[in-house]
Amino acid sequence: MTRLTQLALQTRSVTLLLAVAVFAAGVFAWGQLRQELVPDVEFPVLTIVSPYPGAGATDVAEQVTKPIERAVGTTAGIESLQSTSSNSLSIVTVQFVFGTDLKETRATVDQALAAVGLPTGVEPTVLVLNINSQPVILASIRGTEGTPLEEVVRIAQTDVVPELSGLDGVASVAVTGGQESRVRIALSPEKLADAGVSLQQVQGVLAANNVTFPAGQIPIDGVSVPVSTLHRFASVDELRNLIVGVKTQTPPTTGPGPVTIPIPVTLGSLGTVEEVSVASTGYSRTGGEPSVSISVSKTADGNTVAVSAAVEAVLEDARDRLGDRIRIETVYDSSSFIIESRDGLLKEGGLGAVFAVLVIFLFLLNLRSTIVAAVSIPLSLVAALALMLLAGISINIMTLGGLAVAIGRVVDDAIVVLENIYRHRGRGDDMQTAVISGTREVASAITSS
Which of 92, 210, 246, 298 is 20–30 Å from 38 (CA)? Predict the structure, then answer.
């Protein structure tokens, strides 16, 4: 520490330039640091969710849960394994010891699940518990002046969501609420039996008449153009009139023998075929009125404050563009807490630094010593910001609290050093001797603290 002090005194211009460079690096780091609500903590927990529609809890446990437990149970580093089997759903939670590399472990678990051989249609999803994976913004869209909910859904999906999805730092945009049109086919078992048509036969006919598959190539001007054969149902009436089978009927006759007449069986004759409105992804209400909710999630390395500001800009532009047809409201914005914490640090830390400098001046009555303390406080903080950027640490409530405490720490150390130098000056030492001796005497104590 003494050598560092001597070097700073001998090369004052270099020390000053180095301080300016550190200050500039800290200011640059403040604008580049990711701003989050809490630290980016990834708990060593994997949750495997496996839907098995229509299966009972016993079947789910035997055919899904137990095979998954056997497959992932051999993964290294497991601390505990818990599972829940209910009707149509299996949930397996695996907790690993802290320090486990979740990326590598998840890849191992995915490979194990791929080789399990689960029932047809069961596709397990592996989820990682991460606090910062929650949506950064929840917005609500609802119609005004008689705008139907179907129109609100269309506007949200075709006008707002594509713009939000294209923003930097946005990982996904989910839409909840609204209704969409579907065709519901309800078949009568009695009519199926009377016509001699099975449910599998109806399913096969529907699948065969609603297809898209390659049909070869056509040479045009020396270029082979691929051709696809496709068919899509255009209306409910087309579905009702679709022939799904043939039954025979023998009418009464006066001829020499019975006559068998084939009668086509249409889908509409076996039950009801109708277009209905169903909830697309759930239900959403704002102020008691039907609405559409939009949740925006950011990427792992995205800046919460920057992403929220960009999303708000898109929503504001949509408000201006769509006029009075719809009402867009921001229900939840996680960046507001971060901004409040950041501004609180700047305000409280700034006031603390100002009063600390005033107190130092009142006790020492020395302008030069006061300036040294006044410079050391912001210089130490911006140096910490530069180191945080290099280490990949974000601005959050934990680091902001640490920086606030650091202001007091820096003030204490500055006062101790200055007072000791001032004491040596009072004993008659020259400036350079007082600086070196005063710093050396308290260097070990300050470094330890």
Answer: 92
Average pLDDT of each block of 10 consecutive residues along the chain (449 residues)?
A: 69 81 88 79 85 86 90 88 90 89 86 86 83 80 78 82 86 78 84 85 83 76 78 82 80 63 83 76 75 84 85 89 82 85 78 81 78 80 89 83 79 81 83 83 83
One DSSP character per residue, 160-222 reads IHHHHHTSTTEEEEEEEE-EEEEEEEEE-HHHHHHHT--HHHHHHHHHHTS-EEEEEEEEETT
pLDDT at 92: 92
Side chain identity at 108, as an amino acid letter? T
Question: Looking at residue 250, what is its pLDDT?
Answer: 67
What is the residue whose two structure tokens read 């601390």? 79
Mapped onto helix, strand or coil, the DSSP state of residue 246 is strand
Q: Give buried/exposed letters for 133-165 (b at 16+ CB in 10 A, else e).
A: eebbbbbbbbbeeebebeebbebbbeebbebbe
| E strand or H helix that includes residue 295 | strand 292-298
Which helix or strand (DSSP H or E) is residue 58 part of? helix 57-60
Helices 397-426 and 431-448 cross at an angle (nearest 10°) of 140
Look at the block and give the residue holding tokens 């020492």. Answer: 364
The whole-number pLDDT of residue 132 equals 63
Q: How far apart are the C-alpha atoms of 353 and 344, rounded to whole Å?
A: 14
CA distance 8 to 69: 63
